[in-house]
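TODO from last week: model DUF3397 domain-containing protein.
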Amino acid sequence: MFSIIDWKLGLGAILIFWIFLNFGRSLPLLKMIPRHIKPLSIVVPLLWWEIGAISFQRWQLAFTPYGFLILILWGIALALYQGFWEQRYTVKRFIKIWWRVIEFATTMTLIIFIIMSWGH
């Protein structure tokens, strides 16, 4: 499933799409996207796909389900932290912070996978 194209080509396509989203904000089609949605937020599902492609093509192991489980556990930990430690839990704030954690963790995981797989 993840081995349709080489992961380096897929990464290049995602990078081109991300650059297009960053610099194409003035295009009529992209004006429909709300301003508060960042281009990285749109690209995150594609990055998950690329993490799965790299892990499957390099090690014959699909890392994506384990990554989803980790992100869900981080969400639970964040909800517990906001609810019991800070005593001010709101759904909007939780989703905003959790999505930032997902963006950061996804980007770092992809960078680590690229470094581990590049020479082989």
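Done. Residues 91-117 form the longest helix (27 residues).
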